[in-house]
Amino acid sequence: MSETINTDLYARHGLNYFGGDSVALHNRTNDTLVVHASTTSTARIGALIHFANSVWSGAVGAAYERTFGPQGRASLIAFGRPYDVDPMRLTGHTGIFTAKIGYRPERAKDWSFNLHLDGFVGDRHGVAGTFTTTYTF
User: Fold this and answer.
1) What distance in Å separates the CA atoms of residue 27 and residue 35, rounded to the nearest whole number?
2) What is the mean pLDDT of the chain?
3) Beta-bridge partners for 67
C-alpha cells in the first residue's frame, strides 16, 4: 500500500455574462422590472495538495478569487416612467478553502464514494458541497 502526495498550483480566468430581461409585475398600474445585461470577469489563483493510496484519496487547498466588472443595472417602469433601482455590485474578493475525500473499498473496486466541500469567505461567503457515489461496470 504505497501513498502518493503531490501539489497543484493553478490560475483560472472566467468571463461571466448575465443576460438582461424584463418582467411584467401584473399589478394595477402594469409596472415592469427591467434588468440590463452585464458582463464580469473572474480571476482565481490557488493551490491543492493531493494525497492517495489504494483505498483513500483526498485533497486540501486554498484559493483567492477576484471578480471585477461593471455594476448590474436595473430599472422599474412605474406609471409609464422609468426609475433606476440601486445598482447591484458585481465585484469582490473571496477566499476559497477546499477539502475533498474519496473512498474505494478494496473488496468492491467497482464502487467509489467522494465528498467535496468548499468554504467561501469575503464578499461571497458560505459553504458548498457535493457527495457522489459511482458504480463502474
Assistant:
1) 18
2) 90
3) 42, 92
Strand ranges of the sheet holding 72-78, from the earlier edge strand across to the other edge: 21-24, 32-35, 72-78, 81-88
Please identify which residue in the block is written with the cell numbers 478569487.
65
13 near 41, Cβ under 8 Å?
yes
Cell numbers 458582463 correspond to: 39
Amino acid at 75: S
Selection from 123, 132, 58 nearest residue 96 by Cα: 123
Reported pTM: 0.73
> Which among 56, 53, 47 is positioned nearest to 12, based on CA atoms?
47
Terminal-to-terminal C-alpha distance of the chain: 24
Cell (9 digits) for 123? 464578499
User: How many CB atoms sit inside 10 A of residue 73's CB?
Assistant: 16
Q: Which of the four pLDDT bands, split at 50, 70 and 90, describes residue 86?
A: confident
Task: Compute how many other C-beta atoms are within 10 angstroms of the C-beta atom of residue 106.
Answer: 8
Pairing of strands 81-88, 72-78: antiparallel
Does residue 1 surpass a pLDDT of 60? no
Which residues, listed in sequence order, are joined to residue 88 by a DSSP beta bridge?
72
